[in-house]
Design goal:
By secondary structure, this protein is mainly alpha-helical. The chain contains 13 helices and 2 strands. It is globular, with a radius of gyration of 20 Å.
Length: 290
Amino acid sequence: MVPLDPRTLDRLAKIIVDIGGPYERKGYELEELLRNAQWEDVPDYDGSPRVPWLREQLEKRRENLAEIERLLCRLCDPVEYDDGEVSANEFREVVNARLEPEGLVVTLVGGRPVVGQAGSDGSAPTFAEPPDLRGRLEKLISDPATVEVLMGRVEETRICFSNGAYRMATIGIGTFIEGLLLSVLLERDDDLRTNGFPDVRQRIPAEKRSGKRVSADFASMELLIDTAFVKDWVQLDATTFAHTVRDFRNFIHPRKELAEQPRFDGDTVMLCWGPVQALLNDLEHSLPPV
């Protein structure tokens, strides 16, 4: 994603305010929208005409791709609207019409809104590495060494993708998700850090789960994903799609690859970035910055 054209920002400001329309937002509601999109230092609405006021805020953040992306996702998120998916889907169509000249589209990845590149000739959209990934990690994880390790995984994933090593790039994204969730869970939850992880794996009936806790050293990626879901830090749809990436990550084992004969290409890698964006959006919505 690159900075949006000023004309696109103007069109977005008009549909967000929606003067006289069914989704018209008052000044204080515009403030709430920006804050709920996890924007930092949102100014108080000053009583001036709403469309120019919002356009000014968008223009000031034009280079902040992460905040613009989070706003686009929030506009299309069912949690933003009283009737949920009905209004969210209607608004997503309107937003996507304005984003079409930019080659962008807000789509649902595992049920969560994510910004992607519009596919050519009606093909499925593709996704890229989330913008300002280091900055977003630094707001979720307080330990600088952990952030460096995770960004190292990202850098190696970039190298693999650029050189056609799509299998290893996909595996790299999976290990990034695993490291992100482990770090956030241990930093943010004293009980998990001290006593280990209870068995909350959703694919196993509750009565058949182990009653023992698992040390963080042995917590599987499956357990990490489901723990974040049980804690209500990530929503079900994002959780489901994260498990899909987990399955790709497991192709690190040659035996699994020989048994299933998967096909890896550039689209596989770009599709795996989608759930990373969904997870980040959910974590940023659920947790205060460190």
